[in-house]
Predict the 3D structure of the following.
Amino acid sequence: MLAFLAKRMLAVIPVMAIVAVVVFLLLRLSPGDPALVIAGDNADPEAVQRIRVALGLDQPLVTQFWVWLRHMLSGDLGTSIFSKLPVTDLILQRAEPTLSLALATMVFAIGVAIPLGTIAGATAGSWLDRSLMAVSVVGFSLPAFVLGYCMIYVFALQLGWAPVQGFTSISKGFLPFLHSIALPALTLGLAYMVLIARITRASVLEMMGEDFIRTARAKGVVERLVVTHHALRNAAIPILTIIGIGVALLISGVVVIETVFNIPGIGRLVVDAILKRDYPVIQGVILLFSAVYVLINLAIDVGYAFLDPRVRY
Amino acid sequence: MLSRLNKTCRALLASACLLAGLGVAEATTLRFVPHADLQALDPMGSTADIVKMHGFLIYDTLYSLDANFVPQPQMVKDLKISDDRKTYRFTLRDGLKWHDGKPVKAEDATASLKRWMARDAAGQLMGRVLVEMKIVDDSTFELVFKEPYGLVLESLSKVASNIPFIMPKRVAETDPFKEIQDYTGSGPYRFVAKEWVPGNKVVYEKFDGYVPRSEPASAFAGGKVANVDRIEWLIIRDQQTAMAALLSGEIDVWENPSLDLLPVLQAAPNLATQVINKTGKQAQLYFNHTQPPFDNPKARQAMFWLTKQQDYLQAINGNPDFYRTCASFFVCGTPMETDAGLEALKAPDPAKAKALFKEAGWDFAKPIVVLDPTDETTAHPATVVTVQAMRDIGLKVDVQAMDWATLLKRRNSKEPTSNGGWNIVHSYTGGQVVTTPVWSIAFSGACEKGLFGWPCDQTIEDLRLKWAMVDGVEAKKAVAAEFSRRAFETGHHVPLGQWTTYLARSKKVTGLLETQDVPAFWNIKKAD
């Protein structure tokens, strides 16, 4: 296992290197120029050129890439062209809201989806199963931003139970933190909840027809244990896979939810940076996202070995 | 049942927040949602309105424009103009202090003006006739001109970016093309750098050492009395979220609600709406003067005859209470408004437009490239109107969709349209920028040194300089009319009309000034 982990960690290096080159080239070769955005509509060409020189954007691509790479290798992701703040600081400023939202979303989604999906799978065709499937269709069909507005209208404006927007750091108390994160997490979590619940149901349902389940029942194991110890455990691999995919998909999901609920997270940071062509910020965040993807995949692979004794590395 | 549950939940949540010391907003904190994120902190480095708003909060100016567009002294106590009108001696007010407590000196003012002259069009114009800036003593300095210059106070009080904000000498000595790193000002509020989260929040605190003038506030002039202790700009991108936040009382003022939300906001009992900038904004259609067909003035004039401002304004704004057609290059309702030479805008005639394209020798089978920034809420609808009008007279139009940042790059291309070039782009600007022929490079005729599209006409340049040099409003109006006639003859660009926006605020907030430009934050009061 340790050798596997070491090999996978080493494989991260070429992956990140390829991402770095591709992101750098894509940004530089796509249209748009931060100097023009900074200078504004009424700037004369000379002023734009002087800003370009000040930012080093007049240098050949290879030089620009080398400068960026050199800084990056020393742990410096660069400085925002617009705010002049270090990209690392900008990411750290935004990390807590995004991590909180992602974590709360997954806790809600997994915490609700696995019991529901398991029960639905074990009682296929029952009213609970049918209800869950109906909710799944709604959950999948409803775009997150529509659900977000509905949540704001009902829970923030009509009932006054939650704030409309913003984020309160956990350092200011757990209850205020929970108060600020609850609506966004519920909104974002619904789609993941139904996704995980559907996969759990299908996997458990498939296992319930297996010979070992019949054997367990024949040996007199109570139905609850048949479902949780035998069916659910063997159904865990696809569930874990879909949770991993869900976490990766969250990165795109948080962008929408962060906008609707005005949460200052990394998703909004990168969207703003793209619109302004703030190259260092885009490059830094995309590299971070890539690293997160790679590490999630690694964690899922390790998880397989823990859940299924047949999987060995 | 639901009502009881609701009350219980509200009480529990409120208690929880109170226990955490967070639930109650401070009475003197103004929570303001601006129209955009603060993307830069150097008012010389950007012409964006949001940067200007930041500048007015933390810096002061020597002169300021009042609500009637008249320059009034702000940091200046006394002005003496020599008999030959070539020397202006300014004495600063007593008690002016930087945010670090040090006194504001004449050397700070001259260094700041020098930096401004390197970046701003009006500053550069003034620099051409300026012989020297002489420091007389700590609070007095002189501007000495080689000939009488008619725009000294107008330039020092201009509201169109870049504004000559006064900075400490050590800051003003920064290369004009590099961003400043020290945000010490002498304005009524201090920038709280440690609380700045770009894209989310900007915080300002009242500067207790600021001494406001004794005159009542009038737009950007008069006493800048800071009544609220703390100002928080919250960047909320989504209109629905901002509206909900205002309705729930989480924010106090929202600068740019869209017009379709007006009925909801007007119906809310705790809210009020207000127009603070009657000068508003103006949209424009720009030509690439270097590429056919618009290398020919007849084709450019044709577009004037094709322009129905009503159609543009309906598409851009949609509410006749907030827009007005205006057959003038200079914003209607301001002193230089003139319709000289602009009969075409008053009575559009598509048939005449078609005839002019034919006179220009244009082959109607060839495509005209129009760049369409689909993410831009003003330029995009304007593009749609232009394209339809052109197609209606039989022109072939190649509409190229892109985002705004891409358009900014593309419009600098002088290549033929077959090789990434362009023929028409649309843009818009704050009204203050287009109140005179000199504040904006948009009126330039300086060929390659001018604005994208590169209009090239020495007469236009001469008239801009003439307007700057003549003294008195009537003389300037006459030159403005002359400029307008020439701008039509050369088909410089087409003004597409003007409109205003509104802001929405809690009724607890009062004292928002009608600045005829961006919001000012002094004079505002917030009730408990």
